[in-house]
Amino acid sequence: MADTDVFKSDDPIAWCPGCGNFGILSALKRALALSGLKPEQVLVVSGIGQAAKLPHYLRCNMFNGLHGRALPVATGAKIANHGLVVIADGGDGDGFAEGGNHFIHAMRRNLDMTYLVHNNQIYALTKGQASPTTDADMVTGTTPEGNSMEPERPLALAVAGDCGFAARGFVGEMDHLVGLIHQAIEHEGFSFLEILQPCVSFNRVNTFQWYASRVYKINEEPGYDPENRMMAFKGAQEWGERIPIGILYQSKRATLDEKQPAIQGTALVKQKVDQGAMEKMLGLFR
Questions:
Q1: 49 phi and psi, to 5 degrees?
Q2: Residue ranges per domain, the chain?
Q3: Helix (H, G, I), strand (E, B), or coil: what is residue 24?
Q4: Could you tell me which of 119, 140, 139 has the C-alpha nearest to residue 128?
Q5: Which residues lie closer than 8 Å to 44 by C-beta, 6 or more apart?
Q6: I need a surface site. Which of 36, 51, 77, 229 has the fewest CB within 10 A?
Q7: For residue 215, what are the β-bridge partners?
Q8: Rg (CA), the chain
Q9: pLDDT tens for residues 11-53?
Q10: Residue 119 and residue 91 in contact, taking contact as beta carbons nearer than 8 Å
Q11: Model pTM above 0.85
Q12: What is the pLDDT of residue 2?
């Protein structure tokens, strides 16, 4: 087995005992080790939230920014240095409410980076209000009479946006999840991986047992083809008694780093600065 200790941080972990984030952290370390990566080759970017604490507990480059803004920072880092393995990480509130617009445009740009979203269907850091993925009619701290809105389906949005790699994992299927994260990192282009996890403090409906009794591996279903977009869109909308996990959609299209002449071949951080051109540009603002 690949050595995961190289990515181990000694910082104390502030998650609740039993939180699904522990499993995601373990799976990510295993996937990074499986890819043969070293800490200095990896950048993990996050916003705000319980999920967004994850890079604090990894030994690698990290950037902890604003709520919902992990993807813009990750985009800037990847454009500046496309030699880095860039992973954006956050929760369902962080990623699909404050960060929803950034998610859409990250898929359009198709930069070669990975986006991991921990989905516990609740805002956990801010004590349990409804998030964009909270089920309809669910009682939360901000919906005492039940959530009046239908939940967002991020994977359906990803398929509609022609995301090059759109998948879902579950912390209760650890080896499967490690494989999905590894494949997401190896995919050339923007990879989106939704990870189902329980929130043991604020979501007593969508528990570990609730997910475990419903998930099934869609790639083991006879005839399923992740390159069939209509089939993938149908699978991405399935939720209830059966919930698919695995690679729902995969396609190949040119990445932004392949189409932008300024960053083809040599990363911006390794390019020489034209001092004269810089002074001329600065002069325009004086």
A1: 140, 175
A2: 5-283
A3: helix
A4: 140
A5: 54, 55, 58, 60, 61, 62, 63, 87, 88, 89
A6: 36
A7: 243
A8: 19
A9: 999 999 999 999 999 999 999 999 999 999 999 999 999 999 9
A10: yes
A11: yes
A12: 64
